[in-house]
Fold TIGR04338 family metallohydrolase.
Amino acid sequence: MTATSPPRDTRRSAVYDAEDVVGRVLERGGTIEHYGSTLVLPGLRRFGDVADVPAYLDRVLAFAPVAALPRAGIPVAVRERRGARAAHYEPAGEAGPTIAVPPYRAGGAWALTETTVLHELAHHLCPDRPPHGPAFLAHLLHLYEHVIGPEAAHLLRVALAERGVTTGAPL
């Protein structure tokens, strides 16, 4: 019997690119015109450092639209990640499921944002493969919709569509 390799994560760069575009728009916040619609966007939330993330995640996971998701009751730890190039999710970290975020002092300011933390939380809520597939994106859009706001979710949907990325059915 031969082992099968996991599905390729062919959408990863397109998903990251779409999130970067939306993150830059949220950094400014305020009122924007988008394809003929006027949207009022919140500003991008930032964390002072990694120690601020667990309390935020606790609030998000307790929020009714998120708490209703099947894996929302599974605790997720947060730890500092060495190096500043990436944040990531570990389904089986030392403390159980863990989100690893680079600290501010190591150049992690870029990762200490609500959008990055929600991205990693979406991996926790949807461990399906491939990692940035339709089911993951449905969870990410659910988080954007209910935590940041429907306008932010709309921007992400459009940015994904512009890059040819299809998403899963709404949760």
